[in-house]
Structures are given as C-alpha cells and as structure tokens.
Inverse folding.
C-alpha cells in the first residue's frame, strides 16, 4: 500500500506558504486596511490545505470524511475574506460594519446546516474516493 506523499507534500507546502502569508499580513494590519482581510483569506487557505492533506493522508474513511467536512470552514473564511479584501482595496476608508458582519455569517451558517444534514442528501460528499495510489 503506497501512501500519496507527492500530493500530501503539495498540500502541506501550500499550508505553510499560506500560513506565512497570514502571519505577514497580520503584522501589517495597523498599516493597511486590507491586511486583516488578507490574513483571513490566507488563514482560510491554510485550514483548507491542512484538511485536504488529512483527506489524502488518512487511511480511516470516517476520519477522511470528517477532514473533508472540516475543510469547508476554510472555504467560508476565504469567501468572507475575499469580500472584505475587495472592499478594502476599492475603498481605503472602508470598515466592516455590524450589518455587513452579520450578512457575512449567513454563508458559513447555511454551510454548517448543509454539512450537518449531508448524510441524508449528499449534496457535499456523494462519495469519497480512496487516496491516490490506493485504488
């Protein structure tokens, strides 16, 4: 049984690069209005890459499914971060309002409902293929 080390290495390297960018942008948050949203995007990408690495590297199907579901938190963070990043780049005086913050929570909350109910409708995961090299 061969482990999918090349793909696992790519995901881990991606997570390391994204984490480095997240830390760097967080350090600049006082200098730029767009730094904190960029940190959110990079943190979401880090989470997503780590969950993808776990999906590839784990042998237990239940653990792989859990990692797949966990990855959607990173997806939600990337979506919200890109929205805020775009607004901050277009308008240097833009600040996240309470109303916008509340609206940005709609996507992750609905996504959580779909994740919890996915065993019944399979809209997110219909099947989970065996890791690369194990077919």
């Amino acid at each position: 049984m061969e482990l999918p080390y090349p793909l696992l290495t790519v995901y881990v390297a991606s997570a390391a690069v994204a984490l480095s960018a997240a830390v760097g942008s967080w350090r600049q948050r006082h200098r730029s209005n767009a730094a904190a949203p960029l940190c959110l995007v990079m943190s979401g990408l880090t989470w997503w890459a780590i969950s993808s690495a776990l999906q590839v590297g784990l042998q237990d199907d239940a653990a792989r499914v859990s990692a797949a579901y966990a990855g959607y938190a990173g997806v939600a963070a990337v979506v919200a971060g890109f929205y805020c990043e775009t607004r901050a780049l277009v308008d240097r005086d833009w600040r996240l309002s309470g109303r916008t913050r509340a609206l940005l929570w709609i996507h992750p909350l609905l996504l959580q409902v779909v994740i919890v109910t996915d065993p019944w409708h399979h809209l997110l995961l219909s099947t989970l293929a065996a890791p690369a090299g194990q077919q």
